[in-house]
Design goal:
Low-confidence stretches: none
Helix content: 25-40%
Structural class: alpha/beta
Largest sheet: 9 strands, mixed
Radius of gyration: 21 Å
Number of strands: 17
Distance between the termini: 60 Å
Strand content: 15-25%
Mean pLDDT: 96
Shape: globular
Length: 457
Amino acid sequence: MAAPRTVIENCAIATVDAHDTEHASGHVVVAGNRIESVGAGRAPDDLRDVVRRVDGTGHLLTPGLVNTHHHFYQWLTRGLAQDSNLFDWLVALYPTWARIDEEMVYAAARGSLAMMVRGGVTTAMDHHYVFPRGAGDLLGAEIRAARELGVRFSPTRGSMDRGASDGGLPPDFAVETTEAALIATEEAIDTHHDPSFDSMLRIGVAPCSPFSVSTELLREAATLARRKGVRLHTHGSETVEEEQFCKELFGMGPTDYFESTGWLGDDVWMAHCVHMNDTDLAAFARTGTGVAHCPSSNARLAAGTARVPDMLKAGVPVGLGVDGTASNESGELHTELRNALLVHRLAGGEKALNVRQALRLGTYGGAQVLGREREIGSVEAGKLADLALWKLDGLGHSTIADPVAALVLGAAAPLTLLLVNGRPVVEDSRLTTADEDDIARTARDEAQRLARIAAES
């Protein structure tokens, strides 16, 4: 039996393929969960098994956005420690985060995912590394939320085993033992990881950061990930303080330290990478190590500006990340397209980044970083049908002739349709898979419960 077809036509298309192919007015045919064809003009009228035709007049069709770094649980602690740098912010919030439980994480994951999906994200990533004793199945809570919302999900099982008594930043009661972290990580892979082409769920291995993780955990986690054939993720070179910490504790900078522990390679991506010298960039380019760039979070915490234009010139894979919503309260990825462009032009001039490079960061670049560039990230026949249809004929964009410029430089564009795996998850800017009001109400209640528990502790 033939797969049912969906046709989207009469829209501008930015494919973000290797040639940056664009169509001023074109069509996409989706068969089941795959893109069957892409081209200029209308789709053939005699296609069989068409269950839906979408008139995309006044719209731009792009690949769905790919988020490469997040901390869902932080949805419950937005707006706190407003004027702190990274280390002060972490010290202020770790005691609250160490009181989370399964219901809180489920509510926070629903809020985080809903906000991203409403803004065009079809593949979400999360780095969860806080596992209080007796808190329940926190990773499972996130996975349940992603499955219900219908988003493609790449969660990483994070960990911390270096508490304050060992020179780390987290309080001792917020960390695991090295052995427990490794056992739980392997169990997460064995229980949840799906390596198939059209997988909706892939697990990664993600010790938190050099200042919250022992060298033993880093080394053993890398060995575990490669034995299991999954990707590795951590925070790297986010602040000047982190660099000083690594030099004092390990006698070398973050990149050299990561390389000494097996943490550079084309199966690795790191969040932030703000403070990197030419030697660091060369090491990332040589090894194919990827970067999750989080411009709003870096600005919120005054961490600095990552050298993304230099990374791209060197061939380093770079994608965009929301980061946790306690340091990027908007929780959106589509606004990061604009923020990335503006931040890098402030730092490097008007040629530092253009609108099509910004779109590529949020789509194909993210797919590269997650190791899924053969499956998602561009609008090409044979790839999975993760597609965003942006409405650009309203007040906010009507006088911008270039549709990609309208999407990146203009006001946040509404979504008329978002497909994940060929299935609509947003229609006319509203989720089709969940009640947004219920998500907001539940998350607010859980945030208040967490605040009460933290205050009483």
